[in-house]
């Protein structure tokens, strides 16, 4: 029997691989992303399409590799974003909770340190975020919200390109073990 293929040892190895961050990093980076989302597009209008709170949620959920903490990070970031937006309270909280959960689950299964995988995950989770925001707006609020897949795909590419460089920068804030 090869002990390196034992599922328990693989789970233990994944646990050790989960990244750790200082508490101030986990608090200040999402706060900076939310403030960026709220204030920067007022000066630079083209940056309103950059979903920084989503990218930060995806990054921390991928790196923690724990679905519960990914869900909590998504909920906290989403509710803080809801507080500053004109959207109904809880919409971003629900959607970012889903993103956090599924990103953390993907972090368990994939090598999320590779830039190409990060690119495609950011692309997927942007599309996922927009789609579920559209579904919730129509189902819970009965609001007619447009969902243009072509436009969403272009914005997903833009956000994924930014995500690769943002994730590289955030990697430098990880604690070394």
Give your account of this protein's structure.
- This protein is mostly helical and 177 residues long.
- Helices cover 74% and strands 0% of the residues.
- It contains seven helices and no strands.
- Helix 4 runs antiparallel to helix 5 (91-109), helix 5 (91-109) runs antiparallel to helix 6 (115-140) and helix 6 (115-140) crosses helix 7.
- The model is unreliable at 8-13 (pLDDT under 50).
Specify the helix fraction band: over 70%
Largest sheet: none
Number of helices: 7
Distance between the termini: 31 Å
Radius of gyration: 17 Å
Structural class: mainly alpha
The ordered string of helix (H) and strand (E) elements is HHHHHHH
What's the mean pLDDT score?
A: 88
**How many beta-strand segments?**
0
Tell me which oligomeric state these chains represent: single chain
The shape is globular
Instruction: Flag low-confidence runs.
Output: 8-13
> In total, how many domains does the architecture comprise?
1
Which strand-content bin applies to the residues? under 5%
């Amino acid at each position: 029997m090869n002990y390196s293929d034992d599922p328990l040892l693989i789970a233990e190895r994944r646990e050790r691989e989960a990244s750790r961050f200082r508490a101030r990093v986990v608090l200040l980076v999402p706060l900076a992303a939310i403030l960026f989302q709220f204030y920067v597009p007022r000066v630079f209008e083209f940056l309103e399409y950059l979903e920084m709170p989503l990218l930060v949620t995806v990054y921390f959920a991928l790196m923690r590799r724990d679905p519960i903490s990914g869900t909590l990070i998504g909920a906290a970031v989403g509710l803080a974003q809801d507080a500053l937006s004109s959207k109904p309270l809880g919409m971003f909280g629900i959607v970012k909770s889903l993103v956090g959960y599924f990103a953390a689950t993907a972090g368990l299964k994939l090598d999320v340190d590779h830039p190409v995988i990060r690119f495609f995950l950011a692309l997927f989770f942007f599309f996922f975020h927009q789609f579920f925001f559209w579904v919730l707006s129509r189902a819970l609020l009965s609001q007619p919200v447009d969902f243009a897949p072509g436009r969403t795909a272009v914005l997903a590419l833009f956000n994924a390109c930014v995500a690769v460089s943002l994730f590289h920068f955030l990697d430098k804030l990880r604690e070394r073990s």
